[in-house]
Specification:
Strand order of the largest sheet: 2-3-1-4
CATH class: Alpha Beta
Oligomer: single chain
Bound molecules: inosine-5'-diphosphate, magnesium ion
GO molecular function, one term: nucleoside diphosphate kinase activity
Helix content: 40-55%
Protein name: Nucleoside diphosphate kinase
Mean pLDDT: 94
Keywords: ATP-binding, Kinase, Nucleotide-binding, Transferase
Pfam families: NDK (PF00334)
Order of helices and strands: EHHEHHEHHHEHH
Shape: globular
Number of helices: 9
Family: Belongs to the NDK family.
Largest sheet: 4 strands, antiparallel
Distance between the termini: 15 Å
Strand content: 15-25%
Number of strands: 4
CATH topology: Alpha-Beta Plaits
Number of domains: 1
CATH superfamily: Nucleoside diphosphate kinase-like domain
Radius of gyration: 16 Å
C-alpha cells in the first residue's frame, strides 16, 4: 500500500570549533549562545586534540593544495571542539551561520557571520561545517564512532511521517 512520507527535514551536521577559537573560552561560550539562538540542538559535544595523521586524513580532499600543510599544522596546534548539531536544514543553516570560508571575504559579504567575527586568516577561520548529508555522516562517525547516524535518521523519519 502507498504510504506517503514527509520529506526528512530535521538534519544532522558536524561542526568544529577550531583550535584558535578554543584557546579563548569566552569566545567558545559566545558561540554556544549563538548556536542556541539559531535554534540548533547540540546532540553531542567532544573536546579533543588531533594527531597529524588524523588531521591529514580528515582533510584528505585538500592534500596537494598550497595550504594543506598549514591547515594540518593549525588543526593540530591545540584542543578543539566537535559538535553534532541538529535542526531543520542543519547543514545549510550551520554553513550559513559560520559564513564564507575566507574571513576577509566574509567580513565584506556576510559581516554577521561567525567567520567574519572570529576568523583570523584564510586558514585560521575558526569553524568547520559538513557540506552534505553524506559528508555529515562520515564526519560524525569520525568524532563520535558510537553515534549511529542511520538509526537517528530512521527514527527522525518515523516520528515525522
Ligand atoms: P570549508 O571549511 O568552508 O568547507 P574548504 O574549501 O573545505 O572550506 O577548506 C577546508 C579548510 O582549509 C578551510 O576551512 C580553511 O581552514 C582552509 N582553507 C581553505 N581555503 C584556503 C585558502 O585559500 N588558503 C588557506 N587556507 C584555506
Ligand atoms: Mg569543506
Amino acid at each position: 500500500m502507498f504510504k506517503p512520507t514527509l520529506p526528512l527535514c530535521r538534519q544532522l551536521t558536524l561542526g568544529l570549533l577550531k583550535p584558535d577559537l578554543c584557546a579563548n573560552p569566552l569566545a567558545v561560550s559566545q558561540i554556544h549562545k549563538r548556536i542556541q539562538e539559531a535554534k540548533f540542538e547540540v546532540v553531542e559535544s567532544r573536546d579533543l586534540v588531533w594527531t597529524k595523521a588524523e588531521a591529514e586524513k580528515f582533510y584528505g580532499e585538500h592534500k596537494g593544495k598550497f595550504f594543506f600543510e598549514r591547515l594540518v599544522g593549525y588543526m593540530t596546534s591545540g584542543p578543539f571542539q566537535a559538535l553534532i548539531l541538529s535542526k531543520d536544514n542543519a547543514i545549510k543553516d550551520w554553513r550559513g551561520l559560520i559564513g564564507p570560508t575566507h574571513p576577509v571575504r566574509a567580513a565584506i559579504n556576510a559581516p554577521d557571520t561567525l567567520r567574519s567575527i572570529y576568523g583570523l586568516t584564510d586558514t585560521r577561520n575558526s569553524f568547520h561545517g559538513s557540506d552534505s548529508d553524506e559528508t555529515a555522516k562520515r564526519e560524525i562517525e569520525i568524532f563520535f564512532p558510537e553515534f549511529d547516524v542511520d538509526q537517528w535518521r530512521a527514527k527522525e523519519t518515523t516520528s515525522t511521517s
